[in-house]
């Protein structure tokens, strides 16, 4: 066990000029009004966050004996109930694909900010794919010190978008292999609830899912700033490949814990839609990313999503949540973020 220390308050150090690389988004310049609101609060009290290993599941056991398969599936369901997060080994995604994805990701993020922000011309992705900071932030506690390309897979699988052919082909290869893993895990989780459902095969298609490339620049005022604000994911499953830097934290038993990086594993977490579909059996838990003062952090996330018209309803009775479409869920989340500065999510859809 190791311990991670973070601070609770933002103090006067944020008011000092920050030296940023030309590839970094202009955080301090753009959000200077938020920085000016901060007054000195004196020394801060460190908060101790325990670093722990997530449950680790060897998917190679799914090809062994009937008993091994049964136990492996039970472990996946148990981790989804008790943690909402777990790690998988022998997941079927080659190291070559993962390393190539990371290489291409680093290349695109190292381009000048002005070039990245014109993603429609530079990469030919859908407008708004490149994101950074938190446009809706009303205080520094709501500002995420990170940048990302959040790309609909429909932008790249058709072959009609993406003028950076190497990046697009690598993303397509990565997404194709991870998509198979997502379908396998969703099927197992459904079966463990007693449902041999074709719902995921019919509704969660490669063209309806998303790939998000994340970069967390070094933050001179770390750990006073978060790389990504606390949130839950608005999908069925998220499959994450992260580097060795660390920074991912999640809520377990009412307390924040830090996830110890495992270079051989992929991280899986349950999203809001699976919690609703499972009738609160599987848990979509809050997580966040901490900043690092000296090192940048990279991760790639695959979001297992249905089409906008897909209706999500609880698989057991009585339902905890009313039926809703994915479009309705996303629209409600966006409205809440714009009005309140944060996501409400599933509590909006309780019966």
TrEMBL record:
Q: According to its UniProt record, which reaction does this protein catalyse?
A: gibberellin A1 + 2-oxoglutarate + O2 = gibberellin A8 + succinate + CO2
Entry keywords, A to Z: Dioxygenase, Iron, Metal-binding, Oxidoreductase
EC class (word): oxidoreductase
Fe2OG dioxygenase domain spans which residues?
207-306
Q: Name one GO biological process term.
A: gibberellin metabolic process
Q: Does the keyword Iron apply?
A: yes
- The reply on keyword Oxidoreductase is yes
Q: Which SUPFAM superfamilies does the UniProt entry name for this protein?
A: Clavaminate synthase-like
InterPro entries per the UniProt record, alphabetical: DIOX_N, IPNS-like_FE2OG_OXY, IPNS-like_sf, Iron_ascorbate_oxido_reductase, Oxoglu/Fe-dep_dioxygenase_dom
Annotated GO molecular function terms are: gibberellin 2-beta-dioxygenase activity; metal ion binding
Q: Which Pfam families match?
A: 2OG-FeII_Oxy, DIOX_N
Q: What is its EC number?
A: 1.14.11.13
Q: Which family does it belong to?
A: Belongs to the iron/ascorbate-dependent oxidoreductase family. GA2OX subfamily.
Q: What is this protein called?
A: gibberellin 2beta-dioxygenase
Q: Which organism is it from?
A: Eucalyptus globulus
